[in-house]
């Protein structure tokens, strides 16, 4: 199928078309599209051979109408756009800073090397609050205090009160801050862009002027020439071997001959890695000297200084290194040697431990005795303690003298925490020539928390002494000590055999409590070796004696100890209450208490001791321990009106002469109550109040009792 093209502007008639001989594609174009799985028709598609279809093309007039179409005719006037939110200046310009590079010239008077010095600074302008800060970059080893030159604030521009604005700053112009003129030579890129955005152009960048003194020093360094010595230098080896090792000598410079001179101490430091010497002064507090301790910087110290004058001013040329023949070495420094340091004579009087070990290893020195250079200070006289005024204790009087406000004597809080309420007890006898004091026994208590002692006397019957507290806790001074500064008895004065003089009474310690031995074993450092051995020997001897007595006296278990106390009604009437004591039959009991018996067992056996017994001697009465009774059946508090009798147990055992049947035998070792009351009524004093004797006599006249049953092992044989 041939394709004919129509000429624009002519009707579609024969003769007005022509055939295109170059057309080769006669395929029909697709009129549908496939999108997301759906077939949709094309709005604009081409005809055969990709030729546009004239019916679907827009005319020039339609295109012009579409271009000139006004949407407001259809949709109305558009709404005005909302204005942008207001952003304050301190938020919009936050952290935005303008930076300018500037310099100022500082005049240097009275110097032959330089007349002025060029100081470089950076000027920072903060846009958020129109403040300016001037900072000088720090240069290492410059010797000039650098850093912040002007703090951040608004700098006044004139006397009217106006301040500098960023429009007043520009490159190649001068600004004056507080009388000092700064020349701005450059600005950073962001500052240049900011000025361009504001419609301003900065001037061209200027070149910083050079500092004549800095250039002079730089040129001098450039002219230096170095040469390699012919002999191999061992500086690297010395650095590796002695790196960081310094010999320290203590020396003194005596300048007391001049006016206001003194004896000044120094430290001479010898660096082994490069054989250089440094001298540093040791200044004392409040000496009044300038705080510059360095007297000689690190340099090599020559021995001979070519006869230079020792006083200023020195008018001579500087001596070069090649003119110096010999330098100080470690072998030249010794204790007692005098070192000439550039005309000043220093005496070495001591050295540190590392230096001594270095000289001992390398030079074999052994004598390192230091030299005493300190002048003898007058010794301040000791005023001593004032005499005791007699008010309170000597410690109390001393505390009142040491302080304006009276204070109580101080106590050792550490001893309170360590020892607490620990008390050591010793037994003692009074050493006296008076007959009535011989044999008096005492207990001496030593309180560790405050070293105070108390004395208690043991009560002895018919001795004439009441016993009880002899001396309350107090500090006891030793005999012969000063009254104003007394020396008190302490822990090391208490041992077996020691003699204590307590306010004129002499006591000899003859025994100690077991607590003393336990305390010595726990705290051996609190006692001397003599006291430890003394106490241990005493307890060893005591334990040996106890073992011997136990072997000589075999233990007899004896009878059972009943649960029910004897004579409950009897002791209640006497005001004693219930007396109960569980004591082993073999234990020593010099003052036995009433022994309990099993009355139900007595009734089952049917023993009766209510018969008259022959009288006993005084020695036998010492062993009498209990009053026996037999309660009425059914009522333990009521007693039968029979004759009273007292038994004679010997350490809770029935006596050997006890007959098999005490009911039938009339020779039982019992006595009537009248004899017993006459001879041993005093034995009830330790159990009764003062008016118990009268109650006891009344009760004895109104009641008679029976004896208890004998022990189980002494029961009569069955007939």
TrEMBL record:
Main location: cytoplasm
GO molecular function annotations of the record: alpha-tubulin binding
GO CC annotation terms, alphabetical: axoneme; mitotic spindle
Pfam families documented for this protein: DM10_dom
Domain named DM10: residues: 94-199, 243-363, 420-524
GO process annotations (BP): cilium-dependent cell motility; mitotic cytokinesis; mitotic spindle organization
Keyword entries, A-Z: Cell projection, Cytoplasm, Cytoskeleton, Repeat
Alphabetical list of InterPro entries matching this protein: DM10_dom, EFHC1/EFHC2/EFHB
Source domain of life: Eukaryota
Subcellular location: Cytoplasm, Cytoskeleton, Cilium axoneme
Protein name (Swiss-Prot/TrEMBL): EF-hand domain-containing protein 1
Organism field: Orchesella cincta
